Amino acid sequence: MASVKLKNVKKVYDNKVEVVHDFNLDIADKEFIVFVGPSGCGKSTTLRMVAGLEEITDGTIEIDGVVVNDLQPKDRDISMVFQNYALYPHLTVFENIAFPLRLQKVPQDEVFKKVTEVSDILGITEYLNRKPRALSGGQRQRVAIGRAMVRNPKVFLMDEPLSNLDAKLRNQMRAEIILLRKRIDTTFIYVTHDQTEAMTLGDRIVIMKDGYIMQVGTPDEVFDSPKNLFVAEFIGAPKMNTFRCQLIKENGEYYVTPFGSKLKVDGYKGEELKKRNIEPQEVILGVRPEHMVLGKDADNDIDAKILVNEMMGSELHLHVVTRDNTELIIRVPTVDLSHEQRSKLVNGHEFHITFKGNVMNFFDVNTEENLLN
Amino acid sequence: MEKTNSNNISLFDDLSDLDLLKLTRFQTFLYKIIHFFKAIPHFFVSLFGFIFNFIKGFFVWIKDDFTEIVSTFKEGDYKTRLSYPIMGFGSIARGQILRGLLFLLFEIVFIVYMITAGFHWLGKLPSLGTQASGMVYDPKLDTYVRVAGDDSFKCLLYGVMTILFILAFIYTWRLNIKQNQISEMLLKEGKKLKSTRDDLSSLLDEDFHKTLLALPLLGIFFFTVLPIIFMILVAFTNYDGAHDGYSNLFTWVGLDNFNSLFNLNLGSNNLSLAFGEILSWTIIWAIFATFTNYFLGMFVAIMINKKGIKFKKLWRGILVLTSAVPQFISLLYVSKMFAANGLVNGVLINSGIISDLSHIIRFWEDKTLARIMVIVINIWVGVPYLMLIVTGILMNIPADLYESARIDGANAVQQFFKITLPYMLFVTGPYLLTSFIGNINNFNVIYLLTAGGPDNPKLLTSAGSAGDTDLLITWLFKITTGAESKYYLASVIGIMIFVFVSFLALVVYNVIPSTRNEEDYS
Amino acid sequence: MSEISKKHMGLKAKERLSNTIIYIILVLMSIVWLLPFIFLVFESLRVETTNQVGYVIPKVFGFDNYINLFTKTDFPIWFKNTFIIGLFASVIQTIIVLSMSYTLSRLRFKGRKGLMNLMLVLGFFPGFLSMIILYKVLSWFNLTGANSVPGLILVYVASSGMGYYVSKGFFDTISRSLDEAARVDGATRFQVFTKIIMPLSKPIVIYTILTAFMAPWGDFMFAKYISHATSAGMNVAVGLQYLISTPSNLAANYTLFCAGGVVVAIPITILFMALQRYYVEGVTGGAVKG
């Protein structure tokens, strides 16, 4: 239970490659923070600097008000779950979980109490006498979490803990981590490349790219108001549709003009544009696949032709092409369509799409920053 | 400039990746060879550039270091300043007692050593001694008296050690200054210095490598580094059995020894001839010994591993069993077996294949036959070991490679050349180099089989005799242990082996794709 | 018969033929590889003459050579010398080699790459060259000739750190995240070494101990130079070679040499076969990577 402060943290490898630049972040006590980004964005390096496994080239990291730059990992009171679990192959599950306690020379009866407590929570009590080799991926994962839990660390670090699991198990473990988090009640830093994990787990999400922080915010913030094009495209699946077009102002109302059409910006976004009196200009328009619906609407519709229809079960992903050959993806909940409507949505089918004007995003063509920042 | 007809691409130009794909395999091969040689001038340019930059960097470093030493003194407090003459003073004054005492102790030991012995040996180094031991006429007593005199060997050895000690002292002194500078900075920032207890416990954590390396590096320094420095220096002296260092001093002779090895005009001295002869045989031997074993070992391993062959363990077991017997036994026994009056000739006579004693096969007495014999027997000794290695690697070749090759229609031979061999060469590249170097220095096989023989009068030199199967290393052994004990010559040959091996390694490391990326495994 | 099944039969027959050829080669090879050792054993049991002869099966069988070897030659001394050297070398050398390879494989520190390059370059010098000075220095301390045993132990052990490649190759294959996990769990680097990595490294420890123990049994060059023709300081290799080093010695001792060979070969071979599994792991895991 502790706050973590990263001030101007920098990481340079071999005096040449700078992988983390000037990283600033205040993590509150008991907060669940997720670092997310594509591989090579510096998220793991940052986590490992917090853990003390990488040297901090410049800047300071504080845990609970203490600068830990020069402290060894063992003196930082943190624990960590690794991507490949890093279980000690020669020790039983019990001894694996007990390992941190053994190093602290905790008496045996207390070790037993704590380990069984943890193993009960994680449902691995029956495996306590097994070696890690004899466990499945999911069970190993639990042991790794158990080993990290057992000593009530100040900060709980997780480095892509779910990426070695298959899709189904991953969803299950994700839910369990959410539950676990309520029981453990400490500060979490979680690293992942998967935006779904980030959105579902994080109190706040730190989106990184090439060693820079792109945006820090709650899942709602980063989804609704992405600070820049990168965040907009990274968060959400399928990813946001983007195209260059003109933002124009007519009679006090804003319009955008993609694919030769004219779409009205209304609702919240329209108000914001007006309030800030944004200059008409060329913009990158961002529209999420779920922010379009099938059917006609006087102001905001275009016509399009289906290229591919991906049936995902609960929803359809329609890859369509507009009159000027721009490709779009539209997400349509299956329940909204009758069986007859669905049967029509085949390759080559032509139909109308209506854009929701109140949730559009506009990015500067040069800086790729959100115009409404 | 040669143009390839088909597509007007010149193999002499630097081609783009796409253009390279247009070449036939033979053209690609030519292209690689041409560009290997084209790169040589560039290599030397960059080598000299590197050396120049290194020297420049060295002087810049010295200058910077000197400025820093001065500025540390100017800006430092009295504790730092006093540490200049009294090492460790700053540390002790700031509470780091152990560090300080170690610095101080080192300084005291150094000063005492230099006064009692160091300067003495340093003074002897340029001459390597002026007075041999023995009887010297004493005019006062009007008789010959025994004097202890100098020992050139000790002069050289202790002289070198003294220089190394001085360097170590300078380094430690600099460390002591740096220590003060860092401590002052830390204290200014309000941080605490490491206590003696911290220092000790760090030896099991941050500085654990120092703890672990102390003993191995100490051994390597005294038993490898120091002897190598000493022996390199011996190559520039006339140290031999006649100039043993105390009854007859030896001294510096500059490059004379190298001259005598390379000078072809010295009619009476055929040292350079012998050297050339033995070097070329050493190379031939190393090539044959390495590659016969390598390919035959691979062949045997593939045979045993073939699907459908039964008793795999038995075949492997038999071969491994034979390689388990210490080499000197098998080599000595086989050597005697093929001797003129050995078992093979005996059996041949008894069975009537050879009519009488005058027709026995003299395996070890004919140059060509003896050379073939050592290579063949080396196969007998080495193949089981290679078989073991290759078997391990074969099992690691992913099976799907073969499956996809079979689907693509490759037969067994094609599979070998397209998959097995490239994979083996890739994985065992560094091993091949090590084993090649090992064979250049393969003392046991040659010495125990032939002892270098048959002796060749052409190879008789001032350093003693040498034979047709002598390698540089066995020649070196003979020169050292022979009656003449031409140590300086042994040193020169040792240096030549070093130069040759380093050159080879340099080429191989640059040609073989890096298979040694250690981080790949972690 | 259809075309397809004919072709199938052809394939099978071809397969059978190639397998037969392979069996023939393997049997011939086994004979060539084993025969000299069988001869060696027979000759060691020959009583009628100690000299070389032109037949394999002895006319009179007996253990005379073995008895003479132990009673009339210095063989017991050589055997004892080698055994003592092997014992000390295996303990000290294992400590040194493992320290070195562990450090270079799993610890990161300034100068690590430089150190490894230095080791590589030092290895390019023929090791024997150092013997000239080492012999002289050892002789000052009276560690040559009859007292070669401690001298040889020192020589074998001191530079053994340079032979770290095989065990480093082994350590390299252990996932680094184990070290990191242990350090986060509160272990010092020393505890990582003792509590995590060492228990996982049994194969390489055994491999290192046994190779270190076996090496002195086969060393010839250093042992010959250091013992300097003094029988009391020889190891078995030098001693047995000394037994048959001149024509007259050869005539008198040839079968004794054979017996000596058998006596030395048996324990070493048994050891080697027992260690084969580790040996293969070590050789294929580490030696190949260099």
Alpha-carbon Rg of chain C, integer: 25 Å
Distance between the termini of chain B: 49 Å
Largest sheet of chain C: none
Indicate the structural class of chain C: mainly alpha
Roughly what is the average pLDDT of chain C, rounded to an integer? 87
Word description of this protein:
The complex is a heterotrimer of chains A (373), B (522) and C (290). With 373 residues, chain A is an alpha+beta fold. In chain A, 27% of the residues lie in helices and 33% in strands. Chain A is globular and about 75 Å long. Chain B has 522 residues and is mainly α. Chain B folds into three domains: 1-59, no CATH class; 76-254, no CATH class; 271-516, MetI-like fold. The longest helix of chain B is centred in the first third of the chain and has 51 residues, at 25-75. The N and C termini of chain C lie far apart (56 Å). Chain C has 290 residues and is mainly α. Chain C has 13 helices and no strands. Chains in contact: A-C, B-C. Chains B and C meet through helix 8, helix 10, helix 11, helix 12 and helix 13 of B and helix 1, helix 3, helix 4, helix 5 and helix 6 of C.
Features:
heterotrimer, A: 373 residues, alpha+beta, Rossmann fold, OB fold (Dihydrolipoamide Acetyltransferase, E2P), 2 domains, six-stranded mixed sheet, 20 strands, C: 290 residues, mainly alpha, MetI-like fold, 13 helices, 76% helix, disordered C terminus
Helix-strand layout with pairing:
The complex is a heterotrimer of chains A (373), B (522) and C (290).
Chain A lengths: L3 E10 L3 E11 L4 E5 L6 H9 L6 E6 L2 E2 L10 E4 L11 H11 L4 H15 L14 H13 L5 E5 L7 H18 L2 E6 L2 H7 L2 E6 L2 E6 L1 H6 L4 H6 L6 E10 L2 E4 L6 E3 L1 H10 L4 E7 L4 E3 L6 E11 L3 E8 L4 E7 L5 H6 L5 E6 L5 E4 L9
Parallel strand pairs in A: 3-8, 3-9, 6-7, 7-8
Antiparallel strand pairs in A: 1-2, 1-4, 4-5, 9-10, 11-12, 11-14, 12-13, 14-20, 15-19, 16-17, 16-19, 17-18
Helix pairs in contact in A: 2-3, 2-4, 3-4
Chain B lengths: L16 H6 L2 H51 L2 H6 L5 H5 L3 H28 L9 E5 L4 E5 L4 H37 L7 H7 L5 H27 L21 H7 L8 H35 L6 H13 L2 H11 L5 H8 L16 H30 L2 H9 L4 H29 L2 H7 L22 H10 L5 H25 L11
Antiparallel strand pairs in B: 1-2
Chain C lengths: L2 H42 L19 H9 L2 H32 L5 H11 L6 H12 L7 H11 L6 H8 L3 H9 L4 H12 L1 H17 L2 H7 L8 H8 L3 H41 L3
Helix pairs in contact in C: 1-13, 2-13, 3-6, 3-7, 3-10, 3-12, 6-11, 7-13, 8-9, 10-13, 12-13
